[in-house]
Amino acid sequence: MTERPVQTAPSLASRLTAEAIGTFLLVFGGVGTALFASHLADEAGAFAPGVVYLAAATAFGLTVVVGASAFAGVSGAHFNPAVTIGLAAAGRFAWADTWKYIVVQVVGGVIASTFLVLIGLFGPAGWLEAAQNGGFASNGWDSLSPGGFGLPAAIIVEVVLTAVFVIVILGVTHPERGTTLAPLAIGLTLTLIHLISIAVDNTSVNPARSIATALYGGGTALAQLWVFIVFPIVGALLAGFSYRALFETTG
Q1: Which helix (H) or strand (E) holds 63?
Q2: CB of 21 closer than 8 Å to CB of 71
Q3: Domains of the chain (ranges plus CATH)?
Q4: Cα separation, 248 vs 161, whole angstroms
Q5: CB within 8 A of 200, min separation 6: which ones?
Q6: pLDDT over 90 for what percent of the chain?
Q7: Spatial contact of 36 and 131, defined as CB atoms under 8 Å apart
Q8: Residues 60-68, mean pLDDT to the nearest whole number
Q9: What is the pTM of this model?
């Protein structure tokens, strides 16, 4: 009779590497799809705007399904500073480790957007300049909002939809009440979130994604970036503390 190997917890280095790779995948896949699909729509009239939105929303959802399936057992597959903070607020993650996850998530996202810029350097004439002049798929309001929505609309959708996202994650990954279909449920939720809010502010719910694109999106994108750092975190904190109070109590 052979003995099963002893399962050891992933090292911190493994966890951080998984978070960086997962965030890279999310930004590279989701933002890349948005940029390249938008180019086809603009240059060839190949797609209506709604089809571009659907493509981007699906891409973001698929990256989460793939990344969570690959790395949930290593790092928890957060790939998002707001998710990390929300899980900590709910008591599911150590506050002491949040900054480490956030740093590598931001780094992974920036590397991904940098690779998209490198691809653009070898693209059609004027593609990269046009993409950057258009905000490089950055989040924003007014001139950066695909639908022309203002700042209050961006704040509301970021708080509400980030809270929804974190609550779903907490529910489907619950140690006793969770589901083996968690990666699919989380990915579909992110797809739905994008379908709701791309027209409003290009959908953040993820500060790492917002930082990654704003760095190449020009002055307006950088000036508006604070909203997509602050309010996803607000939504995540509300969700984490509320979930803990409502669903983790006993008696």
Answers
A1: helix 49-75
A2: yes
A3: 12-245 (1.20.1080.10)
A4: 22
A5: 145, 146, 147, 149, 153, 154, 157
A6: 84
A7: no
A8: 97
A9: 0.93
